[in-house]
Design brief:
259 residues; three-stranded mixed β-sheet; 10 helices; 39% helix; globular; binds pyridoxal-5'-phosphate
């Protein structure tokens, strides 16, 4: 939503949830260390869920964390993480095996120690992309929200297909052809996958902003394994592809072409 310069209406979601007695949960998988209106992500709604998957800014191989200010919920989660045990031979609730292994915890701690360096590295990558793609017609490297904290975890590019002369999908296909692992992120939309697609077949009609994002967002490589040399190479390729858009289009397979 920030792509269009509009702030997320988290406050409105809070209001709707409290009016209707609903539980408000946020998927904060990728948002560790970011803020919204000056408040760190992790403190909104009844609970927020972070991912520590290897692709995330804090990496414990697999795993994550639930952040909540609700003590009763926190206790319930702690219990269910360990099969519902509260003491030896004492099971009081339905549970699962969601404990973090020692090796994952050790890995998570090392990335927590390096968090500031990882963010600084990603910020440099973002700034290099923004500088090297500046002025490419139809492409806009989306910046962080003003006065908010960002972890620079993603480099998101907004693709205006009409101006570029290639759709986002065509651009992704051309980059992937050159072994650049550009992605459409997040794709497909939640409402386009099962079970939601079958349960709510008309949901898409009410989601014009989601649909616009699904068609326009390009995600470029970043992270600590990527530095200025790789970023410059990717930007050079992007410029080459966009500069030769009609010829690139002609050579793409029909499946990856814009309708
Ligand atoms: C927005 C979002 N939600 C959920 C997930 C899933 O996280 P995990 O792989 O830790 O289950 C991801 C990870 O890719 C994500 O980016």
């Amino acid at each position: 939503v920030h792509l269009w310069g509009r702030a997320c209406d988290i406050e409105q979601l809070h209001q709707i949830a409290s009016e209707h007695g609903l539980f408000l949960l946020f998927d904060a998988a990728h948002a560790f260390g970011c803020s919204h209106r000056g408040r760190l992500i992790g403190s909104f709604g009844h609970a927020e869920v972070f991912s520590f998957h290897a692709t995330k800014v804090i990496n414990s191989f697999e795993g994550g964390a639930v952040a909540t200010n609700d003590d009763a919920l926190a206790e319930k989660l702690r219990t269910s993480r360990n099969f519902g045990f509260v003491g030896p031979d004492q099971v009081v609730a339905l549970g699962t095996n969601a404990k973090m292994s020692e090796i994952s915890a050790a890995m998570g701690l090392t990335s927590l120690e390096d968090f500031d360096d990882i963010v600084a590295h990603n910020q440099r990558n973002y700034e290099t992309y923004a500088a090297l793609l500046d002025g490419v017609p139809g492409l806009r490297v989306c910046g962080p929200v003003a006065n908010e904290r960002s972890n620079y975890h993603y480099v998101v590019v907004d693709v205006d297909a009409a101006t570029v002369g290639l759709s986002r999908d065509e651009l992704v296909a051309a980059l992937q052809h050159e072994n650049v692992l550009a992605r459409r992120y997040f794709y497909p939309g939640c409402h386009e996958v099962e079970p939601y697609r079958s349960l709510y077949p008309d949901a898409g009609k009410n989601l014009p902003v989601s649909h616009a994002l699904l068609d326009r967002v390009l995600q470029l490589l970043t992270g600590t394994a990527v530095g200025p040399t790789e970023v410059a190479a990717v930007c050079g390729l992007v410029r080459l592809i966009v500069g030769a858009a009609p010829a690139v289009r002609d050579r793409l397979t029909p499946a990856s072409k814009m309708p």
